[in-house]
Amino acid sequence: MISRQITHACNLACLIVVAALFMPARLAAAQDQIVIASTGGAYDRALKEAWFDPFTKETGIAVTIVSATNAEMRAKAAAMVKSNNVSWDLYLEGEIQAASDAHREVTEDLTAFCERFSTKTDLVSNACQAGGALLQSTATLLVYREKDEQQETPATWADMWDTVKFPGGRAFPNFDDPWRVLAAALLADGVKKDELFPLDVDRAFCKLDEIRGDVTLWWKTGDQSVQGFRNGEYDVGQIWLTRARAMKNEGLPIGWSYKASFLVGDRIALIKGAPNRENALKLVEFWLDNPVVQAKACDILSCTPPSTQAIALMSDQARESMPTTEEIKDSVIIPDATWINANAPLLLKRWNEWVR
């Protein structure tokens, strides 16, 4: 009896071993994961639907999203690398910050990884760089609450400062990246587009003093800027186009102006010591190699994907909401990333002293 039990146990153990050896790779991969940090809300939902879910379906690799502010992501990534206790694999970083020395200290140089994409003719030239892969390009711009169709709407940063002609609360971002608020103040004060950088910081704060009492929302996350508009906390504000588009898709009465906008973008950065490094690179590769995925995400968010094929696949409505070549040439500001990164600590110090 005991002999038969031992034989049965051995046979069962052998079957388990054999089953494990011949387990389909897809099922085995289901145990794998990637942790990516993003800014939450509608932005994350769009990326999950268009990018993360199709990736998991194809590879079996689960994607876990951690939501945080941009400042929190930078601080957390730096702390994890410094303590050699990294639990995230990827995080989304602004394109300007992705070119900074601080970013390079925390993230892996992707130059070698990017070589495989250098021959892809549909990708823009900066689609993959040392600081990360380009997720999308979009704008930080002036948005407003649409009211009477016959009523004039604000179009420039000077209009945002005109609280008599365009009454209502104002909204500005308040995180560790104040250059765009200072730049808007200078443009509102009459500085010409081609003379904006280097920023005249003293003049910018003087102009901000004029509108400070009308600011009803200092938002720290993109989702907060959405909730604030939805709740009627402001009527004119400076927010991201991706968030404005998401609100438009919800049917909210929001409009925007490219005459008051800055061209910005996000990069996908790989943290040094990422626990799921190879899987993380597969997720980045999946993005750059799939125009359909890029098109779906940017259809939702009204962003510009890195692939020209993706742009062609986007809906007419989404393409029409992008700034035209003429608008980019005449109105949209391309920020001076080199100057911003070189002066970031000073700008942040002055900003924190002023805004508190």
Describe this structure in words.
This protein folds into two domains: 11-17 and 21-137 and 266-321, 3-Layer(aba) Sandwich (D-Maltodextrin-Binding Protein, domain 2), CATH 3.40.190.10; 139-262 and 322-355, 3-Layer(aba) Sandwich (D-Maltodextrin-Binding Protein, domain 2). The chain contains 17 helices and nine strands. The protein has helices spanning 2-21, 25-29, 41-59, 70-83, 101-106, 111-114, 157-161, 179-188, 201-211, 222-230, 241-250, 277-288, 291-301, 308-313, 316-321, 325-330, 337-355; strands at 33-38, 62-67, 90-94, 128-129, 132-145, 170-173, 215-219, 236-240, 254-270. Strands 1, 2, 3, 4, 5, 6, 7, 8 and 9 form a nine-stranded mixed sheet that branches. Strand 1, helix 3 (41-59) and strand 2 (62-67) form a beta-alpha-beta unit.
Characteristic key phrases:
D-Maltodextrin-Binding Protein, domain 2; disordered N terminus; 9 strands; 17 helices; 356 residues; globular
Share of residues in helices = 40-55%
CATH topology of the largest domain: D-Maltodextrin-Binding Protein, domain 2
CATH architecture descriptor text of the largest domain: 3-Layer(aba) Sandwich
Beta-strand level of the residues, as a percent range? 15-25%
Number of domains: 2
CATH level 1 name of the largest domain: Alpha Beta
- Structural class comes to alpha/beta
Averaged pLDDT: 90
Q: What count of helical segments does DSSP give?
A: 17
Give the overall shape: globular
Provide the low-confidence segments as ranges. Answer: 1-30
Gyration radius (Cα, Å) is: 24 Å
The total count of strands amounts to: 9
N/C terminus separation:
80 Å
> Going by CATH, what is the homologous superfamily of the largest domain?
Periplasmic binding protein-like II
Q: Note the run of SSEs as H and E.
A: HHEHEHEHHEEHEHHEHEHEHHHHHH
Q: Biggest sheet: strands, sense, closure? A: 9 strands, mixed
